[in-house]
Amino acid sequence: PKIFEYTKRYFELFLAQAENHEKNEIYLPFVAQEMMENGSISVEVINAASDWFGVTYYKDKDIAVETLKHLAETGKYPSPLWQ
User: Residue 8 pLDDT more than 90?
Assistant: First the structure.
């Protein structure tokens, strides 16, 4: 999909401009918004009842790993996630 190549370029610009990579982050919704505004993509929003979690900082890793493990153990996510 187009979004991967676009996001790669967005990330390269981020790396070239960002001064504090440990605290700065790329917001994927901003990438999608920019692509919608320039007509590159259209997006359909689907309601979901699931809880959101993310990995922004290294300290978030343990929580994300445990959450994914629990989701796999309860059958909500496949295991392995990717093959």
Answer: yes
